[in-house]
Amino acid sequence: MAVPKKKTSHRRTRIRRSHDGLTVPNLVACKKCGEMVLPHRACANCGYYGDKKVLDTESPLAKKLKKKEAGENDQ
Length: 75
Ligand SMILES: [Zn+2]
What we know:
alpha+beta
């Protein structure tokens, strides 16, 4: 088994970890709902990209209930 020949000094450890810092993502407010989103990405909250709706944000349960309600209205 390979064994380190010398103890890693506190300084060496700190130098190695100088690149481990986390960065804060660049966020912009959604023009439609005001939620903070990554730039050039569709908003996960309202499903809009610019002024177009590109994502279906309705939950599967809400869709099911809606479908059920529509079915009851037909009869
Ligand atoms: Zn939005």
